[in-house]
Structure formats: C-alpha cells, structure tokens
C-alpha cells in the first residue's frame, strides 16, 4: 500500500497534487512519500517486535539525506556499502552504533574512516578483508566488531544480476569454510566477533530461499558457539520483494517474513538485524515525467517522454516492469492504445515499456512511474549530458525539494581544461 492516490481525478502524493509539484520544480522529478516510507519501515519493526532487532535500511536503494533522516528519526539503523553512504547516514543524524558496513571491496581508507567515526559492525566478505580490518583497528588501538557474511549456496530465484547467494557469486565466504575463517578471525588481535551475516539477493518473491539460508545460518551459529565464539547478532540481509504490477503474484508480507525468522532463529537468543531497501523505499517513490511528443511509427506509436534511461535505469538494465500511469486519471471506458514508452536518449535500450496499453496521451501530459523509489534516483547518471533530476519529499500537505536540479553552469564548471588547451 502506498500514499499515491487519485483525488478528484488528479494523482496526489499524500495531500499534494502532482501537477502542483511539476509546476514548481519542472519535470522530470522523483517524489517520495513520508507516510509510505514510515509505514513500510514500521511493518518490519512490528514483524520483528517479539525479538530484539534492528532494521537497517539499505541506503543503496535510496540515499537522499532527508529520506535517511525520516527513517533514522524513527530509530532505523542503516546498511552502508561505501564511505559515501556512511557519511550520508551520519549527516542524517544516525549514530555509528546503528550503522553496519557491508560490501566486498571496502578500502583501507573506508575501514579507517568508519572505525574512527564509530560503527556497529563490519560485515566481512573475505579473509584478506579480515586481516585488513584487524591491522587498521590494531593501529588505532581498538577492536573492530565483525560478522562474517557467509554464502549459503542457495538459489534466490530472482534476476541473475541481483542474486548473490550462490557459490559462483562474488559475495561472502563459502559456508563450508566459515568455521575455519571464524577461527582465524578470533585469533586476530584487532577483531571482536559479534555475529553472522547473510544476504542472498534482491526482489525475492518467495520465502523458501530465505528459510533455506536461515536454517544454514542457524546450524552454523550452533557450531560456532560450540567452537567458543560469542554469536550475539544475526544479520539476515535484505531482499524481500515488492509487487511491481497490480496483477503479479504478491510477494510475501513482512509479517510472514518476520514469523518465519522467529520460527527458524527465534530461540537462539540473538539480536536480529535485517537490511531491507526496496520494500521500504520502492513503493514510496514515483518518477514523474512529461510527454514531449507522440510519434507514429511503422505499426507502432511512441510516447516520447522527457525522462530517460539515465534517470531510471531499471527497465533497460533488468527489463524491469514499472507501471506507468497518467497523472490525470482516465475514466473507465476511455479509449486506450498500445504505446512504446521511450526516452530521448540515443539508444534503443532507452525504452521503458513496449506495447504498453495507455490512454491517448498528448504532448505536455504528465505520467508517473510507480514503484520508482528504490534503485531509481540512486542509479541515475548524466548520460547524454542530462542533469540529475530533482528529488521531492512530501509530508501530508507539504512538499520540499530535497535535491535540486543542477544548473548547466554548475555542470560545466566541473569540467576543467588542461594547461595546453
Ligand atoms: N543488503 C545487502 C548486502 C545488499 O547487497 C542489498 C542489495 C540489500 C541489503 C538490500 O536489498 P533489497 O532489500 O533492496 O532487495 N539495482 C537492483 C537491486 C540491487 C540490489 C543490491 N543489493 C534493482 O534495481 O533491482
């Protein structure tokens, strides 16, 4: 459920009419709903309420500081994968003790900065990384809290580009090797083992792969305790999918996911950490664009928008489906026709939808891409010298620009001529 509904035939973000925002900030833009972000965060905290837990929002899905502060002020932790994300979390007022640091390639500079700034735990993905963290922590005279990310060799049954839990993926330490690597970690002076971490992929629409992975984590936790390690936290990663169309199979609900976690891991006495991104941010955002031209082609018609693949990469990158709706509601029975919905970028891949049944839109009409909050703005680029588009946050009847559209002067000022030109 989200808070983007038609009121009086006009699409609104909570209490604000989308055309009102478009008139002020221009198109295209992203708009996020505070009520939807809050609601989805709370679904997780409620689902895990019988257990000690921390919901660490995966910043990579939507990293605007205003969004992070909205969630951080509710008590959310953050999952970061770079020092840039760490600094965003801190800028949003989230203390280091609520930030976990994931990722296969943390640099030494990133590790040092996180240790100096304060960190809840590093989720470590390799033996060389373990040694690097221990060395840096020792030099700083501290012990770094760590969990090992184990690779459970489970098929997440999602898009190949976003599955991470199979043995052939670059992620984590093979679970069969985990006991030996934990022994090495315990022997390193700069480390304090606190838990086990797992993340098997994104946009999972079935609980079975999660459960298979969590049962392996359970078994490992019992073995590690026998080996003398103090395992007090289990970080279960993110990955719960969202419905991208009204009609597809509804993915499991957070409450079902939470019940499964309690069933599989609840008796271990561990604090449960989860790292959801998409389920919190995905349906909390729209991408709003304008029709530039309606073009008749050979046997097909094109809706050419002012948004493109550089603004929302998911359709061209993963063949992802996003519902595209008119901002002015069409009445039941109004005529529709199939359109190829495309952007202005000079690639055929700049196609949002093929043969999509849409109302008969005209130049200047506004459309909204649903479920665009996650992996939308964060994956945008300036390809074709198209400026990054603004982000807007709505809260009830108010809205605010939370990232401005840069001017071309600002963009051009970043390019420098070398002395010989
Ligand atoms: N934790 C770790 C270690 C991750 O790698 C990810 C996502 C998450 C948590 C959050 O997963 P979520 O709850 O959002 O599924 N760009 C792709 C998705 C990439 C996901 C990468 N890792 C897309 O647009 O579908």
From TrEMBL:
Record text on subunit structure and interactions: Homodimer.
Residues annotated as domain Orn/DAP/Arg decarboxylase 2 N-terminal: 36-281
Record-linked InterPro entries: Ala_racemase/Decarboxylase_C, DAP_deCOOHase_LysA, De-COase2_C, De-COase2_CS, De-COase2_N, De-COase2_pyr-phos_BS, Orn/DAP/Arg_de-COase, PLP-binding_barrel
Catalytic activity: meso-2,6-diaminopimelate + H(+) = L-lysine + CO2
Similarity annotation: Belongs to the Orn/Lys/Arg decarboxylase class-II family. LysA subfamily.
Protein purpose: Specifically catalyzes the decarboxylation of meso-diaminopimelate (meso-DAP) to L-lysine.
Keyword Amino-acid biosynthesis: yes
Alphabetical keyword list: Amino-acid biosynthesis, Decarboxylase, Lyase, Lysine biosynthesis, Pyridoxal phosphate
Any one Gene Ontology molecular-function term assigned to this protein's record: diaminopimelate decarboxylase activity
Coiled coil segments of this chain: none
UniProt EC number: 4.1.1.20
Residue numbers carrying N6-(pyridoxal phosphate)lysine: 60
Pathway: Amino-acid biosynthesis; L-lysine biosynthesis via DAP pathway; L-lysine from DL-2,6-diaminopimelate: step 1/1
Cofactor(s) of this protein: pyridoxal 5'-phosphate
Protein name: Diaminopimelate decarboxylase
Record-listed pyridoxal 5'-phosphate binding positions: 239, 275-278, 375
GO biological process, alphabetically ordered: lysine biosynthetic process via diaminopimelate
Species this chain originates from: Fuscovulum blasticum DSM 2131
Enzyme class per UniProt: lyase
Domain Orn/DAP/Arg decarboxylase 2 C-terminal: 29-373
Keyword Amino-acid biosynthesis: yes
Catalytic residues in the record: 346 (proton donor)
